[in-house]
Amino acid sequence: MKSIGTLYQSGDWKGEKHVPVIHAPETVKSGEPIEVKVIIGEEIPHPNTLEHYIGWVKVYFFAEDAKFPVEIGNYDFSAHGENGLFTEPNITTRFTTEKSGTIFATSYCNIHGLWENSVELKVE
Amino acid sequence: MKSIGTLYQSGDWKGEKHVPVIHAPETVKSGEPIEVKVIIGEEIPHPNTLEHYIGWVKVYFFAEDAKFPVEIGNYDFSAHGENGLFTEPNITTRFTTEKSGTIFATSYCNIHGLWENSVELKVE
Amino acid sequence: MKSIGTLYQSGDWKGEKHVPVIHAPETVKSGEPIEVKVIIGEEIPHPNTLEHYIGWVKVYFFAEDAKFPVEIGNYDFSAHGENGLFTEPNITTRFTTEKSGTIFATSYCNIHGLWENSVELKVE
Amino acid sequence: MKSIGTLYQSGDWKGEKHVPVIHAPETVKSGEPIEVKVIIGEEIPHPNTLEHYIGWVKVYFFAEDAKFPVEIGNYDFSAHGENGLFTEPNITTRFTTEKSGTIFATSYCNIHGLWENSVELKVE
Ligand SMILES: [Fe+3]
Ligand SMILES: [Fe+3]
Ligand SMILES: [Fe+3]
Ligand SMILES: [Fe+3]
């Protein structure tokens, strides 16, 4: 069977405009709100037109003692020129966790497919 | 015919925990990125459990010369206790517009239904 | 305050291509799976291009003894010409209920805004 | 870097209740509407409670000459007991393609993470 998992792309976000850039603290206290900013195209802007755009970002957390990742949120970027309106692929979300683990951000370009990135989070 | 439109609830967010609080600039320059923060329960926290939670926020912009609103984005809050993880109903999104108009935020509580709020945005 | 609720449009789906057409049984047994088909443009097709498309449908159920509607599902139509692919605004969903009430379908056109329709469901 | 792609699980849907079952024609004519049904738990039902449920399904198409997959649709299952309402993880979607390729269905359980399946589609 083919696997969608093999179709996720990544790379250095300083050179590859599709890679989600994740801004998050490295260390937090248990239960303290964690603000995570995800930006696509922070260094090199990605096109934002009706024909070519970033459709969404999903953020997951994979605790170090867990077997499965948990979805934190899904963020759809809806406007790409309608009546002069453009949604930027740039969101901030907030969550709490009692455990250390990995924050994953995945994103979708309607022309260039699925992308991902991750950072580690330490809970003290 | 019945209308879903009549089922949107609102109120003063200082007393009603479901009303989305919208933080946005009052005035921006044309094409300048506008950061909009939407929080549910900023003054009085809303429950965040597997049984009772805020499911999503949608943000629309209705330009003053427009006939129809345009969706800026949709934001799903996915974790409500899974493995000790809680997504907070608190997001920041970014968009650009060349026209003045109204920013609407709508939200959904799985127990208490649909809510809304709006603020005016002036483009100079 | 302005209300997004006033911006939902409706009409006769035989003449207005944006109105969601809801196919559902009129009567079901309690707990029996209910199949609901929602189609936009069943009689008069709606455009489906990168510039103009139906973005999503949401389905709600408002039980006759309830104070608030409950969301059954959200359905995003994502492809509008990418690599020759077109998602049609046409879905079937399934749910169960023990109570009679109203099924609402709402939809969003990126150019023509928010639309709605409803049908009654009797549980015996 | 860790990869979310490695976290997609699969298996035989006759024995593993999380695997999305895809019902689609094997062969279609170019541009002819293709109806795809995706069911989670067709053989062995998956739990559907506020604590444990299937959150969503995403469907992609990867044309045989393409470099990237294109998202056909996203389907959120929203009700898990609210006021006696249960959305079943069972949808039908429709799309058209001029090219042969692979239909992927991915799904998310709030407790058991990400799952996937795929079938081949031949366009004559
Ligand atoms: Fe791209
Ligand atoms: Fe509530
Ligand atoms: Fe339209
Ligand atoms: Fe499960």
From TrEMBL, chains A, B, C, D:
* Residue spans crossing the bilayer: none
Output the superkingdom of the source species.
Answer: Bacteria
Query: What GO annotations for molecular function exist for this entry?
Result: iron ion binding; oxidoreductase activity
Family designation: Belongs to the desulfoferrodoxin family.
Q: Which UniProt keywords apply?
A: Electron transport, Iron, Metal-binding, Transport
> CDD domains given for it?
SORL_classII
Q: What is this protein called?
A: Class II SORL domain-containing protein
Q: What is the lineage of its organism?
A: Bacteria, Bacillati, Bacillota, Clostridia, Lachnospirales
Query: Start and end of every Desulfoferrodoxin ferrous iron-binding domain?
Result: 11-117
